[in-house]
Each structure stands twice: as C-alpha cells, then as structure tokens.
C-alpha cells in the first residue's frame, strides 16, 4: 500500500501526489489507462505541434488542483472530512473517463446522442460495482446530488478545477502564453460562503477577470483557431462519410472495434457497446484515416489525405455569415477544378461561438470582507466582467486550397 | 574594443548582448551607472518584496527589445542602416537617464516643473557633447524629429519597447503573473507600413489585446494598488513637508545634494542643479527618511516611521469619491486620538485613473494581409479593444491605522 | 512564398521561424509529416506522462537552434553564406527523418542492420532527387564531407544542436528539471577556431559542465530509468516474439505495412521496403499490441497486456550483474506461478551503460582568450569534466510482478 | 488577527502564506523590516544586475520552504505539533536577523569578532523578551538544543531550507540557470529516520546530486566570480581604510550610526552597539562610499570611485597562487603609473575555496527502501557525490586597470 502513494512528474504543476490508495487503484484500471491514448486536444497538434498531451494527464492535473483547493479551504476553516476529500478527488479524476477518441468531435458520432458525461457516469457506476461502493460519494458529487454544493462547483462550474487545469495545460503545451493563468493564485482565493457555495475572496477579482480573458483568448486563438476548427470539422465529416459509405455496403478497412461502431445503427446502448467503447482510442481513428487515404471514394480519400499529410483545405474567417452566392461560386470552381459534381461536399461554412462569461447560469460570486456575497459583475472593482457577457460568433468558410489560386 | 561587446545576464530576457561599442561607453558613464541606485518601481517593494529591480536593468532590457524588434523588421524586408540601429538602441538606452530618485513620485518635487523627459534630453545633449555628436541620430529619434516615424514609435507610443520591457519586468519581479506579456510574440508581429509607421501584423491581434489587458491589470493590481498608491503619496508628502519645514528655518539632516534641492527655490535650472541632480539617488532619500523618523515635527516623523518601518496608514478604496462628512469624521478622530489639531494632514483622498486604450492619441494599427492599415478597434477580429476605451477612476482614502480600531 | 515563412509555436524555445522556402517544403513533405506520429521518447510516457512530444517537434526545435547558432557565429565574425545556412538548417531538420516507430528500440528489428542514420541518408537522397539537388550541401554536411568541419559538428558531435534540443525538450516535457540546460547560453558561447572547428569560448566552461551533468542525470533518471529501460525492452521482445510466431506460421493481426515487415526475411533493402517504411508509425505498433493482448501465445499476450494496460513487470536495479542463481530462482518461481515451462522468457537482465564525457572521440574544445584551443578536461577552470570520463553501468533484473509477493 | 494571515507575492515560490499570527508580528518588527534594506548578495548586482533581492525576501522564502517541508513530513507520518511548526518557522524566519549591511563582507569589520549568527541569537533573545517567551522553542531549535534533531538540520545543515532558498533565489535573480534547483522535488524527498534525523528518500539521490553540482556552479560562477570576489574584497578594504584613517584623526563624512562603528575600538559589545547596529543598513555604506569618492586619501577615494561608478580594477584568475615576482612587477607599475609609493595597497591576491560536499561534518543520509540509513557517498546509485569531496581553490589577482594596457 505504501507503494501506491506515488508521486507523478507533471511539467505543468510540478509534482502530483496520490494521497489515497483508492485513487491509485482507479488510475491503474484499464478504463483509466485508456485515457493515455486519447489526446486532450484532438487534432490541435496539427496547428500547435506541442499539443500532444493526453486526457490521462489532464485528469491527474485536475485531481491535483482539487487536492490543493481542498487544502486551501481547510486552512480557511472549512471542515472537510477524509471521505469528502476522497470523493471530490475521485470525482474529478474520473470526470472525463467517458471520453472517446477525438471527442468532443466524435462523441455523438460513434454512439448516437451519447454525451461523454453520460458515459463517464456509466463507467463510474461500473467501477463503483467493482470497488464495492467506494465511489458512491464521488458519484453523488459528480452529479450534483451531494448536499454540500461547493464540491460539485469545484468539479463543474464556470470556475472549476477542470477548467483551471485544461486552460493552464493547453496553454503550456501549445505555447500560447496568452492563455496562461495563475492557478495557484486563483485557488488561494477560493472560499466557501455560509450557504455552502464556492466563492472567491474579493481581493482575487483581477485574477478571476484575467482567467476569463485568458479563457476567451484560448478559445479564439487555439480551440476555435480557423485551422483547428477546420481539422475538427474534417474529422467529423470523415466519420460521417465512412458511416454513409458503410451503409451503402462499401467495405472500409478499420480495426474491429471501430468497424463495430461504423456499422452500428441507431439504438439503445448495450453492454457490448460499452465494452467495445472502452477499447477504442485515438489510434483506431488515426489508423483508419491512414488507410482511407486510398479509398475509392473521392471525398473520403481527399479528406483523409488532407488530415494525414496535413495538407489542409483553405479557410477564410469572418465575423459575419458568408454570402450564399460567394459560397456557390466556390462550389462551382471546385466542381470545375476536380471535374466532379459533388463539390458542395468540399465547401462548408463552420460556425463557432463563445460566451466569455455567463451571468445567467452559475455566476461567479465574490466574498466581500463584510461577509457579503456579490456577483462578480456587480463588484465595484470589476474592470471587464461586465463587458464580457455577450456571445461572439465567427464563421469559417473552407474550400479546396487548389482552387484558391484561381480566385484571390 | 572586443572587450566591450559584453553579454549581460537578465533573468527576464535571458541574455542581453551589447552589439555596438558606443552602447557600452554610455552604459559605463556615471550618468548611466547612477541608474543602478534608482529603483524601477519606487516603494512598490513595500508591497511586492521582489520588486527591487532598477532603472539600470530596465534600460538594458528595453535596449535588448529594441535590438530584437529591429532584427525582426529587417527580416521582414525593412531596410535599417547600422547608424539607425545604433541610434534607436542609444535612444531607448538613454530614455530614462533623467530619472531622479523615486520618480515619478518626486520628479516635480525636487526641481519645479522638471519632467524626467526634459532632463533625459538635457543629459543626452551633454553626453552628445562628450561623445562628439555620436548621439545626434539617437536624440532626433527620441524627440520624434527623425524622418522615419517608426523609430520614435518604438521608443515612445502605446506599444513601444519601453512599455514591453517594464510590463514584463515588473510582472516578473513582483510575481504578479496577470501582468505577464509575451514580448517575443508581440515583437515578432511588428511591421512597418508604407507610410513608415509602426504597425502590427493582423494575426497578432489577440497578443495586442492581451498586452492591453495585462497592462490594465498591472495598473490596478500593482502600480495603483491602494497601498502602492499610498506609499508613493506619502513620499511626496514627506518631501513637501521637509521643504516646508526647511522654508520655516528648521534644520533637517540630509546629504549635501539632497539638502541643496530642499533649499532650492523656484527658478530656472542651472548647471549646478544638473550636476547635483546626477549625483542624487534613492539612497539620499531613504537615508533622509531614516533620519527624519526622529524629527521634532510630528507629521514628518510620523510619515517617515510609517515608510521606514512599513507601518503604513489604513486605506479604503472606492470607485466613487468619498463623502466629505465621512472624511471630516476621520479627521476629527485623528485629532482626538493623537491630541493634535492638524489631523487633516494625516487624512487624504488619493485619486488614480487609467485609460486602458487611447484611441485618440497614437492608436495602434493592424496591417491586414491585403496591405491595408486599420485601427485595432476597427478590426473585425478584436474582442476587447473596443471595450477598453474609457477611463476608470478609483479613490483611495488614507487615515491613521490607530483610529480605525475605533471605527470599523 | 511569403506564405511559407511561417512561425510555429514551441513551448520550449518560444517561436520557431522558417526563414527559407525550401525548409517549409521539406516540412510539408509526407516523409516529414510522418514524424508527427512518431514519439520522441517512445514508451517513456508510461513513466513520465508529459513525454508525448514527437520527433517532428524535435526536428523543428533543432533547426531553430541551428539558426540561432549560425546567427551567433556570424555576429562573432564567422562568414557563413546563405547557401551554407540553408544547408545546415536542412541537414539538422532531416537528421532524424529515417526514424521508424519506437526507434531506437525497433530500428534494427524491422529492417535488419538498418540504422536510422542510414535510412535518414537514403530518404534525404530521395528528397534531393525530388527537389532537384537543392539538398546536396545539406547531405554533404550531414555526412561530414563538407569542407568546413564545424557544420557537421553542429549536426553531430558531443555538443551538437541535436543534443541541445532533445535534452531541453525531454526535460521540459517529462518535468525532470535536473536535465534542464540553458541552450541560449551554450549557443552564445559557441565559436569557430582557426582550423574551422567548433569551439566554446573559455568563459562558457561551467555551462558546458552543467550540460554534461544534466545529460548524465537525464540518462539515469529518465532514459535509463529502470521502468523506462524495461518498457523499451518489452517492446523489442514483443516484436521479436511476433516475428518468431509469424515464422512458425501463426497469423497475427496487424496493419498491412507492419505485417510486411513481420514477414520480411533477412535481405537487402528494396524500394518497396523503403516505401512501406515511410508509411509506418507508432500507431501501427500500438494498435498491434492492443490486438495481441488476446493472442493465444501466452508470452506475447502477457507482454502486450503489460504495456497496453501499464501493468508492468517488477524490476530491481543494481550496479553489479545479478547472481545467476538468483535469476534461476526467479525463473523457477515464474514457472511455478504460471504453470509454464518457458518462464525464462519472462525473466531478464537488462544492461545500460553511459560514458558522460568521451575524451577519445570528438573531445569538446575551449577557446582561450589568447586564441589557443584546449581540451575541456585540460582547462584549469574545469571542475567536473575530468571526473566524468568513465563509463557507469547499471543492471536491471525484470520478472513477473505476481511472483514478487512470494519473495520479498 | 484574520488580517495577519496574509499572502505575500514571491516570484520564486509563487505565494508565501503566513499561517501563524506570531510570524506576522515578527515580520512587522523593525528589526526584521530592516532586512528590506540589506541586499542578499551584496555588491553582486554590479555583475548580475538582477541580483537586487533582499535578506527580507530570502527569510520569507526560507520560512515558506520550512512550511512545505513540515507538511511533507506530516504526510509521511512524522508527528509534528503546532508548537513545533511555529518554532521551526520562527527559527528560520529569524536565522539571518543579525545580518548587517553587506555581510558577509563586513560582519567582522563593524563589530570585531561578531559573527552574524551570534547577533541573530542576541536579537532573537531580545525579541523573545518582547514576545514573552513565545520564541523559546524557536531559539532552542536554532541553537540545536531541541531534542528532535531534524528541526535544527532543516535550519542549518548541508541540505537545509536556508540553502534551498538562497540557491534557488540567487539563481532566479541573477539569471544564472546553472544554479537552479528543484526545491519542490528535494523537499518531497525529505524524511525523518528512526533516530529523529533528517534523511532523503533513496530515490531522490539524483536531485541531491544535482543540488550539490548546482551549488558548486553558483559558487564559481556567481559568488566567487572573479569580479564578485573583487567587489566584496574592495568593500572590506574600503571600510578597513576608513577605520584606519579615522584612527589617524581624519574626519570622514558618514551617517551617525556608521560613524559610531568607525570610531568604535575593540571591546565587548554594549547595548548601545546592538541598538545602533539594528539601525544600520546598506544605505549607510553606499552613501558613505558616494561621499568618500572625494576623500583626500588617494586609496580610499580610488576604491570608492571604483565601486560607485563600477569602474573596477583588473582581475586575473588562476588555480595556482601567483608568482611573487609577477605581483611585485604589478606594484612597481602601479607606483609608476600613479606616481605613488603605496601601490602595494592597490595590488592584491584574493583567495576563494570551496568544498562541494563535506563528508566529515553532517554528511547527507539516504533512507533506503529497507529502512536502512546510508551516507550519500556510499549509495550504489550515486554518480558524482563521491567525486565532489575535495576542496577547490582559486586565486584572483587584482591591480589597477590603467596599468594593464602597458602589460598585456
């Protein structure tokens, strides 16, 4: 058992301690080890070559921040039992356990209507059976059913340790310093108010605003970067196309498990579905795309070559939707250039939108020196929060690079 | 001469190379060496103990960024002669050479109406005489008289290498990560447009916006932090008080040079003024405050003890001006507590304001792929710039800590 | 073409510029893009979860350091033509292009006697044909045939930019700070002596010694960490076992290209070999191991489960070879535990050795102020170099974890 | 009281928490606030301009590391009472409280035979009186009289938190990355053995060896850098000279407190000595040197100009003592050049020596998995420790720069 209280190297947070045996057991489980083979940011490494980090590492990092947050709260006088500590750490450790390859892109693709959070919950319940109920508190916290609300807010809210870890981690591995946040500072400002909700000590207001702007920059500079958006979009189209071809009777090479999902129709999830799902990872999809480069289907092979050889289509970004006539023209040129008639398959408008700070759902609260709890945007110290409450939308038009020479 | 092409360690930028002999000669000059004894951020180290860095180091850092910026521009095809490179590097190296001890706080205190930029120019001209005109181009660039405008814009504008260095450096030494900016990225996005003005490549828009928000956070979190504002305010009051006492015939211990300025009345600057000024530094003022702790004047000794022993008065911050009646009450309590009748000397409202992005004077321009130059706030990619165009003001009320126990 | 002069984000070095069009063309080539799918440190991420970085990124990083090194040398007066700069940058960019999946572990496994450097050269020559001889200088430099020796020394020596990048990069991604080196400082100390060889300015002596100790720590703490050594060893055994089973007529699932190499006997390399090799990457091997977990062969399935589920065998490390009787005992217990008779397949002694500083082959030279060139270990300033000239060897014994409970 | 549990920004360790009220009270005390005006590394900023950090900040940093170390030990099952925690943190907070201006250079200069540790103890006892015995445990621990030895070893040994902080801090502020150590890692490896002594978990062996090499590099690259050694040497000579002149009846301008010590003869320390000592800081000495540039004494004014204007004499470094004849020649040239006859005052050989790892006094112990405690140098894993057990000595010859032109 002493052996299980390991320390794991993390270039982002330094060292990650595993203070409870059960955490180690979950980490060792094949369901969790699978996350080693699922990238945290999908195809983003095509644009930011350092972004090869995994969901495995993110989950450990978030668990570490949870530990730090709970330590901070205890030092401020919040009572937290060992069972609650274990529960909260387990919940955040497993919060992404239901992620499949290249989710978010593919999650509804492989299993209709299955959101990764449902799958996470399903797998947690399975693990809970195996570990004889030891995960029950964790599951309650994950679902927001635990009576002390701040545990769930640390797991899932506008300022949870999930976001704290992924922003810092993605910023670190992409090298996009605009997204860097000071997790240590933000956590040191966390507190719990009388009603048992997560709040931020008022003097942390600028760190929170910096967190909100950093997140916004990460979205537009990284996650919604026009080429990132394109790569994710292509992935979805590739799997859609493959499912479509398969439904037409075309035989596409793929691993057994991936094939299973390509052939699977719309229906309720079975035990086999879940079992096979837990054996899928990014390799199945990457390998399929490598193979499908040689498919007889022009569209499938075109897209797979685009991704595999990183020879990506052209994109234009705009804050307005593109003129349908302009799009029509691109399709026409595509048809002409390739001598095809389904050029519309290769020209698409992709839409991305972001609300930097949502004041409607789970606003962020500041704890005044007086003990009063106020909304971030109502603080007289706030500088930007009140300005970041509107959605921004961007439109990205993609079309074959080859035809762009003849246009602009 | 080989000996002069030194490398200087800088924890902020890594290594600073000195590529021209004349730069080394200026650095060696006593006028410049004096900057080693002038802190970059005055009394801020009372709040941020790491902030002990000097104007000497900042000037070297800014020179380094100028070098990097010019290298970048050359790689983009902008022709820059060796004479221009030397000029620009000299100008930024010397841009703060006229700073006295604890400026900005004290600059108009020691010599009436003398702004440090005037003094910098005056000292540059003196050095130019000594170096037989070698600094003429630098001085033209510093004054904005050189025909290629971007050189002056690199020295002094809303996005100059001065700001780039001091933001990064102050963030580094204070440990306030919210102010950290990516100077390497911002400089790599610099360009010169057809009209010879400094512009930013359009894809750098988020780095610029991040720079603007980082700067705003540094102002409110560091420079205008209520205790920082207070410390700077006290310094001014101390020197004012000392001048006042001296004018009444009180003998205050001070170094010879500081005494000279305490006694000096309002009049045009003489050669002696300048000579003595270049021998003053922070030590003269710190030493004086140490001594004046024992002054017979209650107010002077009170303030000097506050600063020297870091036993600072109480402050409250607000986004509105304080109610005169509330202030009056504080004065009354002060009088009562100390048994004095000039309690109004110890109760003050300090005001700080900031315009994060000034669209009127020297707006920041983006260079579109099309070659067109547009204002940052007009870009369709901008997320925050258009929102940061209004002044924010804060009011800080200070009064003796001792009386606060009886109030809140 | 303007479009090709891109900037790539690198969390390690900041930003990587691509200053010549031909470099961009090579990066775009499928041979090079393949390196995105080949990890820099193989299975090390089983021990250091951050170590998911790729050979693709390393090659770009090394190219960046080459650029920096050449800029430094030019500033010191070394004449370097544009053709030489391109050549050196191309050579280092392509120096690892011949790496296959999980080399160094597998390089001699897939293709007998084929060292990755031979393959790199072969692929460079193919590319040179495609690019009509534009890579000729690069290839000369890579082979050490170019008349100015320092170019080859920058590519391949005890202090080349390859080592500088991989040490810094591996230290960064593993989070093992003991291996961190100051590449900027080391490069700033590089020079070329009269004979045209790479030397280090004498005052850089401690940076070089720090580089040597950092490298030594990285070997024993990371690359030769007992679990790292084990993982690499298992990989080799898995492929050996698979080849063996295939030769016995067993049908093992694998991608077409991997299968090709499993079946390929010993013979001279053909064009098909090369073509197929350039389509292999880590995914082929990972996918195979995932499949082979279910193999009927006990040994193969055992090892593949070990690696895929990170349920690794036990290891003991020692500075002496293990007692044969002790090993024999482990084998006996393994046979007993599993009820098998080939337990010797699961018990192995792995050996790792390192010579921190090799004074025989390519010693490192310091350039004294006097212009004299001396060996690092002969410098009167050196502190450790003279002590680091002997090989250290470690022995690692591995055996099934399950039997360890019955022993210690 | 809530108000006292502050957080202090530290660019080195992130944030420093003050978990006990008494710590805050000590920090507020004028004895401790004085450390804000005493540089951690004396005149080193003449060579490394970033090194302007103070003993105040170092003491806080060491206190923070003590807190982290104790947390780690508790997590490993070592029982530590709150009183012990307070004691250990107080002891390390105050360990340098007896430092005067520019100690170590000046400590025996101002008050004969007074080592700063004696003064620290004396001041601690005074504070203990003021705080009614609350510091008693701290003082016991500081003196090594507390029954659990590891507390004293954390305060003062070959691997104490004092060294951990100053190495990391000095490396950070100088920018000399070769001295960077991973304090977080080293502390996470700390443990207490059965005998109650501080030990290091065996797997931390390389982190310890890296600490030893980093320390060695910091000594030779920074603290004993020939110009650093020179600057410190000059400071001593300046004060010696001033005392000498004063003893001859020369009137030298100085602050009242500094004057007191210049005039003070050899005798036992009085209460007045202590009182005045606690009012001295770097400013007194810097201001004196600024004034003494104009002294009538050639030697004093020469040295003070050297330091104040950073126009330092020439130095040569060697691993052997210099030939007396060579030195004689320098003296002769000095006499000739300046037309003086006491040139021997300006030519000196300075000696610096370092023992990287002392196996005699307080060796470092590793805790084997078996529970056995072995000496670092006896571990079979150690790579360098056994090689670093001998003293290295360097000799630095200094002489006026002006005469060097006539020689080499």
TrEMBL record, chains A, B, C, D:
A GO BP entry: dGTP catabolic process
GO MF: dGTPase activity
Domain HD/PDEase: 51-176
Signal peptide: none
Top-level taxon in the UniProt lineage: Bacteria
A UniProt-annotated Pfam family: HD_assoc_2
PANTHER family per record: DEOXYNUCLEOSIDE TRIPHOSPHATE TRIPHOSPHOHYDROLASE, DEOXYNUCLEOSIDE TRIPHOSPHATE TRIPHOSPHOHYDROLASE SAMHD1
Protein name: HD/PDEase domain-containing protein
Species of provenance: Chryseobacterium wanjuense
């Amino acid at each position: 058992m002493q052996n299980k209280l390991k320390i794991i190297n993390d270039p982002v947070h330094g060292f990650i301690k595993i203070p409870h045996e059960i955490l180690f057991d979950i980490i060792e489980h094949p369901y969790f080890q699978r996350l080693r083979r699922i990238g945290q940011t999908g195809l983003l490494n095509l644009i930011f070559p350092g972004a090869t980090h995994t969901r495995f590492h993110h989950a450990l990092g978030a668990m570490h921040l949870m530990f730090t947050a709970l330590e901070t709260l205890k030092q401020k006088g919040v009572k937290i039992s060992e069972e609650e500590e274990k529960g909260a750490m387990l919940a955040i450790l497993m919060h992404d356990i239901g992620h499949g390859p290249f989710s978010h892109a593919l999650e509804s693709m492989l299993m209709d209507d299955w959101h990764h959070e449902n799958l996470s919950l399903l797998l947690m319940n399975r693990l809970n059976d195996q570990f004889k109920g030891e995960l029950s508190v964790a599951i309650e916290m994950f679902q927001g059913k635990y009576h002390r609300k701040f545990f769930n807010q640390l797991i899932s809210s506008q300022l949870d340790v999930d976001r704290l870890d992924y922003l810092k981690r993605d910023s670190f591995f992409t090298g996009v310093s605009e997204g860097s946040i000071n997790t240590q500072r933000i956590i040191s400002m966390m507190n719990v108010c009388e009603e048992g909700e997560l709040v931020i000590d008022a003097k942390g207001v600028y760190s929170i605003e910096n967190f909100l702007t950093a997140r916004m920059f990460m979205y537009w500079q990284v996650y919604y970067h026009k080429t990132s958006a394109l790569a994710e979009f292509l992935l979805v189209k590739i799997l859609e196309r493959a499912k479509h071809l398969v439904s037409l009777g075309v035989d596409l090479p793929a691993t057994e498990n991936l094939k299973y999902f390509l052939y699977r129709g719309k229906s309720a999830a079975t035990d086999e579905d879940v079992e096979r799902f837990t054996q899928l990872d990014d390799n199945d999809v990457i390998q399929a795309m490598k193979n499908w480069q040689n498919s007889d289907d022009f569209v499938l092979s075109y897209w797979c070559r685009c991704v595999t050889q990183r020879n990506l289509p052209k994109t234009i970004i705009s804050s307005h939707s593109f003129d349908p006539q302009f799009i029509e023209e691109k399709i026409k040129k595509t048809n002409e250039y390739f001598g095809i008639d389904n050029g519309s398959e290769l020209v698409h408008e992709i839409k991305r939108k972001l609300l930097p700070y949502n004041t409607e759902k789970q606003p962020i609260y500041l704890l005044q020196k007086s003990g009063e709890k106020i909304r971030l945007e109502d603080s007289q110290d706030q500088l930007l929060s009140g300005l970041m409450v509107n959605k921004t939308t961007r439109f990205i038009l993609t079309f074959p690079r080859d035809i762009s020479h003849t246009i602009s």
